[in-house]
Write a structure and sequence with these properties.
This protein is α/β, with parallel strands linked by helices. It is built from 15 helices and 19 strands.
C-alpha cells in the first residue's frame, strides 16, 4: 500500500474498520482521493478488499496519543472522525469520548489539517437528550475546540445491510410475532439509507458551503418505529406482527430485551434504547440542497438491505468495530488445554476451507444443540450468544465476529478465535493446519494434520469449577467438530465440483 504527498488530495480516515468507515474508504477512492487510514489494527483493516489499492496508506495509531496522531495526520487535507464509544456504555464512557475528540482536534490543528468531518446523531435539541445523544453533542464541541473548521452531519437511524439499527429491527420482527414494547414505538424518526449517508460524507469535501456547518441528514420519510416494524415485516414477507405498547418498560429493560432477542449486546443496545425516546427528525433540508442526490425511501432502503442479506453480500457489519485482542498473555496462571489431532486425506486448502465454515448458519459440525444451549445461557448473563452469526457464510477475515467468538488471527495455516462469551476466565479456540509428505511414488491423495486446541485460563475458583463442569462435554463437542471438519474436507476432495 502506497503513500502520496499530495496534500490537497489526501484524506485521513479514522474508524475505517467500523460499519460506515469500512464502506467510506472505497467511496473516497472512487471519488479520486488518496486515503490514509489510522486504525488500531492494520491486520484487521487489510481484510477490506479496497485496501489493496496503492492509494491507500494504512497506519497504526492511538487516538489518545496526541504526538503520534499529529505525525500520522501531517499531509492530509481533511480528516474524518468516525470514532465513538457506542459499545463502552458505563461510567466514564462519555468523558472518554470527549477526551478522544479533544485530542484529535489538537492533533489536526498541529498537523495543519484544513477541516474535520464528523458523523453524529440526529435529535431534538434541549435538556432532555439521552446520555448517548448528549455525548455526541459534547464530541461536536470538542472537535471544534482547537479551531479547525468542522462539518457535522447528524443522522438518525442508518438503514443498510449489517447496520446495528437494521439488525435490531430485523431480528425483532423475525423472532417476535407479538411484541410488548415501550411507548417509544410512537416516537418519530427520519431514517436514511447507508448509500445516501456515504454520498453526503464524500460530497461535502467538494462543497465549500458545508465547511463549519451542522447539517441534518435523513431520507424522505418521517415514520414512527411502529411503522418501521410494519415495513420490515412486509419486506421479509412475514405475517402481520402485533405490537402492544406499554408505559412501564424503561430504557434499561428495553435494552435487556433487545439484547436477548437480537445479536446486539446489552452495552450497545443501552444507548440505542435510551435514544429512542428522542424525536429524531431533520430540522431542514439544507444538506439536500447543498449536495443533491436521489434519496431512498425507507421501504426502498429496507428492501435493498434485506436483499443484500439474502444474497450474502453484506459489505460491513455493526460487529466489525469490536475489539480484536491479540494472543492472550497466558503467563501467571494455570492454563487448561484440550488439544486434539487428526490426519485428513485432503489438501491443506480443503481442510482450511472446511475449518472456515464453522459457526453461523452452518453450525459446529456436531452437537449443535449444545452450542445453541451455550449460546442461550450466554445471552441470559449478558453475552453476545450465537445470534451475532457471521458476516460471510464461507470466508473469514481478521476481526470478524463469529457467534460469540472473534477472529484474532487467520492465515492459510492457522485460525485463532478469541471467546467473547461471558466466562469466568479467558478462552481461545485454535486450528493449526500442517501438510504431511506422501511417500515417494505414492499416488494417494495428499494428507494434512489438523490440530484443534482449546485453551482456558480460569479466573478464581468459579473459573476452575466452570472448566471441570464442561470438561465431560468436550469429547462430544470438540471431537465431533474435529471429525466433522475431517469429513467435510475429504468430501470436498472426492467431489471437487460440489
Amino acid at each position: 500500500m502506497g503513500q502520496d504527498s499530495n496534500t490537497q488530495n489526501t484524506i485521513c480516515l479514522t474508524g475505517a474498520t467500523g460499519y460506515v468507515g469500512g464502506r467510506l474508504g472505497a467511496h473516497l477512492l472512487d471519488a479520486g482521493y488518496n486515503v490514509r487510514c489510522l486504525v488500531r489494527s492494520v491486520d484487521k483493516l487489510q481484510a477490506r478488499p479496497w485496501t489493496d489499492d496503492p492509494r491507500v496508506d494504512c497506519r497504526q495509531a492511538d487516538i489518545l496519543d496526541e504526538e503520534n496522531l499529529t505525525q500520522q495526520m501531517r499531509g492530509c487535507f481533511a480528516a474524518y472522525y468516525l470514532v465513538h464509544s457506542m459499545q463502552a456504555v458505563g461510567k466514564g464512557y462519555a468523558e472518554q469520548d470527549r477526551i478522544m475528540a479533544e485530542t484529535f482536534a489538537r492533533a489536526a490543528k498541529q498537523a495543519s489539517v484544513q477541516r474535520i468531518i464528523y458523523l453524529g446523531g440526529l435529535g431534538e435539541l434541549g435538556d432532555d437528550l439521552s446520555e448517548h445523544l448528549s455525548s455526541r453533542r459534547e464530541v461536536e464541541e470538542a472537535l471544534a475546540s482547537a479551531g479547525v473548521p468542522v462539518t457535522i452531519l447528524r443522522a438518525a437511524m442508518i438503514i443498510g445491510s449489517g447496520s446495528a439499527s437494521f439488525e435490531i429491527l430485523r431480528y425483532l420482527v423475525e423472532r417476535l410475532p407479538v411484541m410488548i414494547t415501550p411507548k417509544w414505538v410512537t416516537t418519530q424518526s427520519q431514517p436514511i439509507g447507508i448509500r445516501n449517508v456515504l454520498h453526503y460524507l464524500v460530497a461535502c469535501l467538494k462543497t465549500p458551503e458545508t465547511i463549519g456547518k451542522t447539517l441534518d441528514i435523513g431520507g424522505p420519510d418521517v415514520l414512527t418505529y411502529r411503522e418501521l416494524m410494519r415495513i420490515m415485516t412486509e419486506a421479509l414477507d412475514l405475517p402481520r406482527r402485533w405490537i402492544l405498547p406499554v408505559p412501564v418498560l424503561t430504557p434499561r429493560l428495553s435494552s435487556m430485551w433487545i439484547h436477548l432477542v437480537t445479536p446486539v449486546s446489552y452495552r450497545m443496545a443501552r444507548p440505542l434504547a435510551e435514544g429512542l425516546r428522542n424525536r429524531v427528525v431533520c430540522r431542514n433540508d439544507e444538506a439536500q440542497r447543498l449536495m443533491p442526490q436521489e434519496l431512498l425511501t425507507t421501504e426502498q432502503a429496507i428492501r435493498a438491505a434485506v436483499g443484500k442479506v439474502k444474497r450474502d453480500q453484506v459489505e460491513t457489519a455493526w460487529s466489525d468495530s469490536g475489539p480484536i485482542p491479540g494472543d492472550p498473555d497466558w503467563a501467571g496462571g494455570k492454563i487448561f488445554v484440550d488439544e486434539r489431532r487428526i490426519e485428513v486425506s485432503a489438501s491443506p486448502q480443503e481442510v482450511f476451507d472446511a475449518v472456515c465454515l464453522v459457526g453461523g448458519g452452518h453450525g459446529y459440525y456436531a452437537a449443535d444443540w449444545l452450542w445453541r444451549l451455550r449460546g442461550m445461557m450466554d445471552k441470559l448473563v449478558g453475552g453476545p450468544g450465537l445470534r451475532r452469526g457471521r458476516r460471510d457464510p464461507k470466508h473469514l477475515s481478521t476481526g470478524d465476529a463469529l457467534d460469540f467468538w472473534r477472529v484474532s488471527r487467520i492465515t492459510p495455516q492457522r485460525l485463532l478465535l478469541i471467546a467473547e462469551m461471558k466466562l469466568p476466565g479467558k478462552a481461545t479456540l485454535e486450528f493449526n493446519i500442517e501438510p504431511l509428505e506422501n511417500q515417494p511414488g505414492n499416488s494417494t491423495p495428499p494428507r494434512t494434520r489438523l490440530t484443534q486446541t482449546a485453551r482456558f485460563r480460569p479466573a478464581g475458583l468459579i473459573g476452575l469449577l466452570y472448566w471441570y463442569s464442561v470438561l465431560p462435554l468436550h469429547h462430544v463437542v470438540f471431537s465431533g467438530m474435529l471429525n466433522g471438519i475431517c469429513s467435510e474436507s475429504e468430501r470436498a476432495t472426492h467431489d471437487p465440483t460440489d
